Amino acid sequence: VQLVESGGGLVQPGGSLRLSCAASGFTFVNWYMGWVRQTPEKGFEWVSDINSAGHKTYYLNSVEGRFTITRDNAKNFLYLQMDNLKPEDTALYYCVKKQAGGACGSWGQGTQVTVSS
Fold first, then answer.
1. 10 Å Cβ neighbour count for 3?
2. Chain segment 15-68, per-residue pLDDT in tens
3. In what side-by-side order are the strands of the sheet with 2-6?
4. In terms of Cα–Cα distance, which of 114, 107, 101 is closest to 78?
């Protein structure tokens, strides 16, 4: 399993970023996928999940309405569109392959998102 994130960076409050995750080494279309973020203060924090077909999505309350998770099963890509970013969204964002039962099975290397003026 290989998960490679991209798209992080420095953005001002209120700005937008789109994270991408290229997946390989497994049958992508068969698995729930998600995003988890990490900060020194909070540790790991689940952000969002999407089911295998892409029809069901789930969000952390604080990002609901601002973040959108999608996937392209033809290209084996997972995305996280982040709008109206806030300083508290600053974190290292990981793409994760979910296991049956909901645990995070495989992780990418992470992409840093910094929201600051």
1. 22
2. 999 999 999 999 999 999 999 999 999 999 999 999 999 999 999 999 999 999
3. 2-6, 17-24, 77-82, 67-72
4. 107
Taking all residues of the chain, what is their mean pLDDT, rounded to a whole number?
A: 96
Q: What residues contact 77, with CB distance under 8 A and at least 6 apart?
A: 20, 21, 22, 23, 71
Determine contact, residues 113/13, Cβ cutoff 8 Å.
Answer: no
- State the Cα–Cα distance between residues 99 and 89, nearest whole angstrom: 25
Long-range (24+ apart) CB contacts under 8 A made by 52-59 are: 53/29
User: Terminus-to-terminus CA distance in the chain, angstroms?
Assistant: 37
Q: Give the C-alpha separation, 49 to 57, whole Å.
A: 6
Give the residue among 69, 91, 89 at the shortest CA–CA distance from 80: 69
Q: Is the dihedral of CA 6, 49, 82, 44 positive or negative?
A: negative
DSSP string, 27-73: -GGGS-EEEEEEETTTEEEEEEEE-TTS--EEE-GGGBTTEEEEEET
Tokens of 34: 């998600």
